[in-house]
Amino acid sequence: MKKNFNSVVRMMAEAAGYLWEKGWAERNGGNISCNVSQYKKLFEGISPLSVELDGGVDVPALAGALLLVTGTGTRMRDVASDPMANMAVIRICDDGRHYVIVAERPVRPTSELPSHLAIHNYFLQSGSPCRAVMHTHPTELVAMSHYAPFLEKDVLGTLLRSLIPETYIFCPKGLGIVPYALPGSQKLAEKTLEKLRSHDVVLWEKHGVLAVGKDPVEAFDMIDILNKSAQIYVRARAMGFVPAGLTPEQMEELRKSFIPF
What we know:
By secondary structure, the protein is α+β, with helices and mostly antiparallel strands. It has a nine-stranded mixed sheet, with helices on both faces. The protein has helices at about 1-20, 75-80, 115-125, 140-145, 155-160, 165-170, 185-195, 215-240, 250-260, and strands at about 30-35, 55, 65-70, 85-90, 100, 130-135, 175-180, 200-205, 210-215. Helix 3 runs parallel beside helix 7 (about 185-195). The chain has one domain: L-fuculose-1-phosphate Aldolase, CATH 3.40.225.10.
């Protein structure tokens, strides 16, 4: 069991390294969490390192759950090189509102914890196989969120899915957009969860992106492929033209060939 838990830690570190290498994790930007409740026995008998802390949202389905979460103020480059010095293991209390830190070091979890908790709670309620949540700051996608016409319903998501076939195949439900909200706020958590119910990835206006997956690397892949489309758009505009994108007929052909729903 310890070996399997360590493999999750290594995957978190791997994903953190990707974010830093991409230039999407300036200073302490970005955060990752993963549900590790299957390893509860490893933490049995460990006295909490903190008093009960308010998680910011009510998450009854998570009562008793364990989450591995990057720490507040920590840098992704440090998570990559020394993961357990820069991540927290937290246990959600029975009231579904508070949590305690149970790892060896008193690392406080990310300030974006309310969004992570709300999404993990939804995973359990809906029977989703997803166990990982990732938030980061992909440069081109964030830049595009500063242009108001892109923020209209389904405009940016449709554009990005048309720029390379893989984006349409792997992000068939597209990109949901949440208007600017205070980072770490309950409002941001609620709006993010609302969009995630019907989209693959969520873009926080003027802030960053949030994606989910069965593991942290899968969540990273979702963001990576969407930002590739954003890069294609930016490069085309820099060369002086508007990219044509796939035609509706070409996208329908992709849907029939690769998308099972």
